[in-house]
Amino acid sequence: MLGGLKRRAAKAGLLNRLNARLASPDSMALADLAGSVDFTLAFAGVDEFPDAREFFRQIGAASKSRASLLLAEPRGQVESTKFETQLDAARGFGLHSRPSVPRSHAAFLHVFPSQSS
Questions:
Q1: How far apart are CA 56 and CA 94, in angstroms?
Q2: pLDDT in tens, 21-43
Q3: Nearest to 18 by CA among 56, 4, 27, 54
Q4: pLDDT band per the 50, 70, 90 thresholds, residue 116
Q5: CATH number (domain holding residue 80)
Q6: Local confidence band at 59 (pLDDT 50, 70, 90 cut-offs)
Q7: Which residues contact 15 (CB under 8 A, 6 or more apart)?
Q8: What domain range includes position 27?
Q9: Does residue 15 form part of some domain?
């Protein structure tokens, strides 16, 4: 999956702007990125992580002040109430908008300045 993503990014001329990683059940291995990420796309990812608060903590630690996060979870996998619970777990993030992402629950968030390193 990551290989295909990287091939498509290279074809679009965006590979140098992408840092795709394979996460483990308890860590996204982002410590080396502390305070350096401008934007995170979390598509069908929060539901796969055992602890939503820890997911957002790790993203926040890797993010620059005022970085953005686009969160999208497939409607077929995640019920509306569970998505709202995920958003409640996003401490240190502010809800900017609810964009329309086909067949998904979605939220565009920003990192509060105190959340990032």
A1: 12
A2: 888 888 999 999 999 999 999 99
A3: 4
A4: very low
A5: 3.40.50.150
A6: very high
A7: 6, 9
A8: 23-111
A9: no
Strand 104-111 to 93-97 pairing: antiparallel
**Average pLDDT for the chain:** 91
Residue 94 in tokens: 């502010």
Considering the domain boundaries, does residue 117 fall inside one?
no
Element (H, E) at 24: none
* Domains contained in the chain, number: 1
For residue 12, give the 3-state DSSP assignment. Answer: coil
Q: What was the pLDDT predicted at 114?
A: 56
Q: What is the value of pTM for the model shown?
A: 0.84
Could you tell me which of 44, 51, 58, 56 has the C-alpha nearest to residue 93?
56
Q: Is residue 18 part of a domain?
A: no
Measured in degrees and rounded to the nearest 5, phi and psi for residue 111 equal: -80, 130
Comparison of pLDDT for 39 and 114, the residue scoring more = 39
